[in-house]
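Q: Start with the shorter request: fold the first protein.
A: Done. Sequence, then structure:
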Amino acid sequence: MSFALADPARAAWAAGLAVAGAGLGILAGIDARLAVGLALGVAFVLIALTSVTLGLCLFIALEFLQLSGLGLSVEKMAGGLLALSWLGAMALRRGEAERSLISAHPAFTGLLAFFVGWSLLSALWAAAPDVALASGLRYAQTAVFFLIVYTAVHTRQQALWVVGAFVLSAGLAATLGLVLPSEVSDEGRLEGTYGEPNEYATYLVVGLVLAVTLAGVRAASAPLRLAAIAAGVLCSGAFLLTGSRAGLVAMGVALFMGVLVGGRRRIGTMVAVVLVAALAATYFVSFAPAGIQQRVFTTESSGRTDLWRIAGRMVEAHPVLGVGAGNFRESSIDYLIQPGVIRRDEYIIDRPNLVHNIYLGALAELGVVGLLLFGGILVFSLLCAVRAVRAFAHAGDRDMDVLARGLLVAIVAILAADFFASEPYSKQLWLLLAMSPGLLAVARSEEPPGDGDAAPSW
C-alpha cells in the first residue's frame, strides 16, 4: 500500500516539474531574462524563508537581472521575503548579540536611523512632499540591508557565498547584455540589464573586481574559481561595449586601489594593471565602434555640468535643510533663471534629470545635515573594511585578507563612479557597504589574542 501511495506522489512531483520546466523553456524562447528571473524567483521563495544567507545570495542575482525594467515587482517581493527571513532568524537567535548590528554597533545604527528619519522629515519643507516621503522610504529599505547582511554573514563560508553571488550574478548580467540585441542603445552602447550604460558599466567593474578577488581565494572550490575567472572575462567584454566614462573612472580607481592595497602581491598587481590598461586603450583606440570612440575621447557636454550648476544654486538657497529628499527634479526648474550659463536646459525643462553626482545630490536634497549623515555611513563602512583587512592580516588568514581587500577596492570603485551618477538607492552599493561590518565581525571572531590593530602589509 505504501508503494501505491508513494508512486502517485512521485509521479505528481515529476509531472509538476516537467510542466514547470516546459513552461520556463517556452518563456526562455520569448524572453531569456524573464525566464531566468522567474526560475530564481521560485527558488528564492523556497530558500529565503529557511536561510537568510542563501536568500541574500538569490536577492543579489535578482537585482543584477533588474526584472523591474519589465514592469514586474519580483525584486520588491524578494526584498520583502528577505526581510521576513531576517526577522525570523533574529527571533530564533534571541540572545546572540554578536549577530545583531544594533548590539555590535549601536552608535552607527543610531546614525543610520537618523539619516532615514532626516530624509522622511524633509517632506515638511519639500516642494513635493509625497516624493520626499517615497524617497525616505527607499532609504529605509536600503538601510535595512545593514541589519540583514550583518545577520547573514557571520562565517567565512557565508562571506564567500555572498561575494560569489555578486560575481556570478555580474557574469550572468554581462552574458545577457552580450547575447540579447535588445540590450544595445541607439548609440551602439551596451545598456545591459539596467537599460542605462553608465550604471551597467559600474556594476560590471564591481563584478570584475570581485571576480579577480574570488579567483585568488584558495579556500574557494576549483569550479567556483573557474566560474569567477569566466565571469571576470564576460564582465570585461561587456564593460568595453558600454562606452561609459563613469565606468572608466570606476575602472581606473579600481586599478589604482588594487595597486595601493596589493600588499605582498603589489608587483603582480602592477603587472596586471598595466596589462589591463594596455588592452583597454588598444580596444578604444583601434577597435571600438565610432560612437563609443567619440563619447570616450571627446569632451562634449552631456548636460552634467549644467545639472551640477543647478544643484549648486539649490545649495546656496537651502544650505542646511536642502530642497527635500528626491526633490531635485521637481525643484530644478525653479533655479533655472538665475545668473550663470545653462547650455542643456532640456534636462531641466523637457526631461528633468537627476543631478548625476550622488554627493552633490545629497547636499542639494538633504542639506549639510543630510550630507554629513550620508558621509558618516560611507566612512563607517570604509573603516570597517580597513579594520577587517588589519584583523585578517594579523590572524594570518591569507584568503580572507584577499577577500577584505577586494571588497574595499569594489566599494571605492563604485563610490568613485557615483561622483558622476545619481544612484543613492542602489542595492549593489548598499549591499557592498553592508558587507564591511559583517566581514569585520568574521575577522574579529577568529582574531588571535594580541594587538588587533596591527597594521597590515599595504
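Q: Next, the second protein, separately.
A: Sequence, then structure:
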Amino acid sequence: MKNHTISNAISRFQQAVKNTIGTQLAVNTILALFLLNGLMSAQPAPTEFVSFGSFIDQTKTANAGDFMGRADSHVRDAEAFEEMRQHILKMYDGVEVEHSFMMGNNYYDCVPVEQQPAVRLHGLKVATPPPQSLLRGQRTNDMQRDAQHPFDEFGNYQHCEAGSVPLQRVTLDTTSRFETLRQFFSKNPTGPEHASQGGDNGPDAHKYSFTYQYVNNIGGNSNLNVWAPYVNTAEGEIFSLSQEWYIGGTGSSEQTEEVGWVVYPGMFGDEKPHLFIFSTTEGYQDGCWDNSCGDFVVSKDGGVIGAPISPVSTSGGTQYEVAAQYLLYKGNWWMEFQGTWIGYYPGSMYHGGQNSKYAQLIEFGTEGVGSTIWPPEGSGAWPSKGFGYAAYQRNLLYYNLTGGGPWDSLTPDIPSPHCYSIAGPYSGSGKWTVYFFEGGPGGTGC
C-alpha cells in the first residue's frame, strides 16, 4: 500500500507553500525537488501471488488477534472479525477457481458463472442480457484493460475463460480496514443518505454536487469524465466519486441502482479511481459495494467491477471518460459498461418494491465523505473552469416506460456551495446535447 504518511505530509506541504507563494507553479516546482531527492516513496509491489486455494486456506485459519494488532486494521473486536471471516467463507463455499489475476492492488478470481454467490446463494438461473440494439450510450475509447498488455505483473492473463466471470476477491485484509462487516458493505455506515436531501451532518457526512429529474424511468445513461481527486485519509476523508443514481420510493423503502467511479483508499488500498456499483432496497440499510455481498449477477467478462480505471484526465490536458448505464429489462436491472452488458441486480431482490416496477427519479453528480474536512470532488476544480479543467458528465438520457431514450431535463442542486458546485446543465448537439460540469475543491465548512 502506498505510504500515506508521506503523501499526506506532502499534500499539507503543498497547501502551505501555495498559501505562502500563491501559485501552483511554485508548488509543482518544490514538489519536483521532493521527487528528485527520493523523498516520495513508490507503492511497493506484491512479492508473491496468492492463489485462490491459498486464500481460502488462509481465511479458514485466520486469527482475530493477528488482524486486530495491525496498524491498518480498524475491526472493532473479535466478534466483528469472526463475522467477516464467516461471510467470506460463505461467499466462496463450494466455488472452484482455476484462474486468478491481479488488477491494481486487488485479486480477481474467474468463478464459473453458475457458482458465483448471487446465483448459488439465491437459487437463480442466469438471465439473457438485453440486445445490443437497446444500448443508448456511446462507448468511448478509454479502455479499462490495456489490450496490448493483458497480463498482470505475475504473468496471469487478465481475462476469464468462457463459462467463468471475474469477481473481485473479498479478503480479510480489506474488510478489517472497517470496524464491522456492515460498515464495509455500507455507503453510509451512520445511516440513510440520499443525494436529493442535500447531504447530512453526521460523523461521516456526505456532501454533493448533483443534478436531478423526477420522471418515471427504467434506467438511463451517462458518459462520466474520469479523474483521481486526492482523498486525504489522514484528515478523516473517506471517498470521492462521480456517479449516476436511479431511485424509487422514499425513506426506508427507497431503492436505488448506482454506477460510476470512486476514489476510496479504505476499500481499494490505493488512490486510483475504480469502477463501482451499488444498490439498496431498504433506504441504505442494506446493499453493498461491488457485489461484495453477492447481490449482483455477473454475466460477461467485459468490464471488471471494482477495477482501477486508467488512464485518467489531466488538468489542461487529455480528457478521458467511461460510458455506463442501467436498464430494467425483463424484471432485472442490467448494468452496461463501455458497450457491454456486464450483469444485473435480480428483480427478486427488490421484494415487490418501487424499483421492481420502475424508478421515479434520476440523478447525476458527485459525492464525497468527510467529518471536519471533505475531499475534492470531480477534478477538484470549480465547474466554472469548464472543459479540460472541471469534471463533466454528458450524453445524459433516460429510458422511459415504453423503452424510448429521451434527453434528460435536469435541475442542478448545490447543497454545499462553499465546497462544490454545478455549471449547467447545458444544451449542445449530438452526444453533448445535455451535459454539465461538476465538483469542486472540498475543504472545511462544507
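Q: Describe the second briefly.
A: DSSP finds nine helices and 17 strands in the chain. The longest helix spans residues 4-21.
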